[in-house]
Amino acid sequence: MNQYLPKTAKDIKNQGDLKKVLSSCVDLCSANRAKDALKYLKSLFGEEKFTQSMAVEVDNWVCSSQGWFRSSDLYSFLHISSLQGKKNVYTILNRLKEKGQIEKHTKKEGLWRRIERDLVAMDWINAPDAGMSLSFPFELEKLVQIFPSNIVCVAGTYNAGKTLFLLDFIRLNMNAHEIHYFNCEMGDSELKKHLAKFKGIDLTEWNFKAWERSSGFSDVVVPNAINVIDYLTETEEYYLMANHIKDIHRKLTSGIAIIGLQKNPQSEVGRGGYPTLDLARLYLSLNWDTIKIVKAKCWATSEDPNKLIRSFKLGNDGGFEATSNWYKDEEKEFYKDNKKLFKA
After folding, report:
1. Same structural domain for residues 168 and 37?
2. Which pLDDT belongs to residue 30?
3. CA distances from 78 to 18, 39, 119, 186 (A)
4. Which of 11, 12, 33, 136 sees the fewest Cβ atoms within 10 Å?
5. At 164, is the secondary structure helix, strand, or coil?
6. Which of 53-67, 307-321, 326-340 has the lowest mean pLDDT?
7. Which of 68, 15, 67 is nearest to 41 (CA)?
8. What CA dihedral angle connects 186, 192, 198 and 200, to 10 degrees?
9. Could you tell me if 204 and 64 lie in one domain?
10. 242, 337: one domain
């Protein structure tokens, strides 16, 4: 055994917690003698105290964990490589499971999750009755109400006007609300060019903060502000899109997030599919000349705005110009033959 190892249990205590001692022992021993170091420590500590100390380390680690974790994460944390050490960790985890502190994944071996029982009370009795004071392109605020912590999704076909919609929303609300714009594809000059297209507003009058960001939006959204994300994407694992939206929603308090999504021309929902609808209180679908309200949870009037469609073209002021009133899918053919009846 290495001559620099501590000689007594008192020496071990003076060196700090068990994890640090284990780490020191493994570092001092050659790889093929790490097992000997473990036995050595047990002989000084005593089997029972050694296991108890490990249980404390595991419990502390689990209490600080979030989401699913693997048994191997604990092996790495405790520097455990022996079969017996892994069995000890497994036993400790099962005890925590029996106590109702963690649960085991039903399908994946070695996967665990801390059960989170913290609750946030809802003060609904003192909550304001009206939604937030917001203005949207196409005067959507006359059809739908948006409340604090809401998610709005704008799914757009390429070149259909998704960025224009988001920037126009900023223009309409920037003097009444704090707005943060997160952009994943434009540089400074390109953004400047887009903003310059809006007529009647000087570049120096734009009042919002613009940030370069392409992922991890939940880490940077401002909980009590308006967050405009242009846009949320995944290169291959589109099934994760709904999870990203969920993570963003968790961070919001009195603010909201308006999230741009790419979509295929044949689909009315963005990449990530129908699960991206789940948390959205307003979900819009943009094609090259129409906008559709795919989902609206809180109506501004007694009239149901879901599935309403409106035709548009790019206006002379840099924004949108509606070319029809709102109509529904079943009126589409009638609209084509009687456009004058639907003129905005």
Report:
1. no
2. 44
3. 9, 15, 31, 45
4. 11
5. helix
6. 326-340
7. 15
8. 160
9. no
10. yes
Edge-to-edge strands of the sheet including 68-70?
A: 68-70, 111-114, 102-104
- Mean pLDDT computed over 297-311: 96
Least confident of 142-151, 158-167, 200-209, 325-334: 325-334
Q: Are strands 290-296 and 179-183 parallel, antiparallel or unpaired?
A: unpaired
Confidence of residue 82 (pLDDT cuts 50, 70, 90): confident
Do residue 229 and residue 330 come from a single domain?
Answer: yes
207 burial level (CB within 10 Å; 0-12, 13-18, 19+): middle
Q: Are residues 83 and 171 in the same domain?
A: no
* Cα angle, residue 240 at apex, residues 164 and 155 outer, rounded to 5°: 20
> What pLDDT, on the 0 to 100 scale, is given for residue 329?
79
More confident call, 56 vs 286: 286
Same domain flag for 55 and 159: no
**Are 216 and 162 members of one domain?**
yes
- Separation CA 298–CA 296 (nearest Å): 6
Residue 2 lies in a domain: no
As a whole-number percent, the residues of the chain with pLDDT over 70 amount to 81
8 A C-beta contact, residue 254 and residue 148: yes
36 with 106, same domain? yes
CA–CA separation, 144 vs 321, rounded Å? 20
Domain that residue 182 falls in:
130-342
Tell me, what's the pLDDT at 177?
Answer: 98
pLDDT digits (tens, 9 = 90+) for 217-267: 999 999 999 999 999 998 778 889 999 999 999 999 999 999 999 999 999
CA atoms of 211 and 190, how far apart (whole Å) = 13
Q: How many domains does the chain have?
A: 2
Find where tokens 């392409």 sit: 214
Within a domain: residue 119? no
Q: Identify whether 1 is part of a domain.
A: no
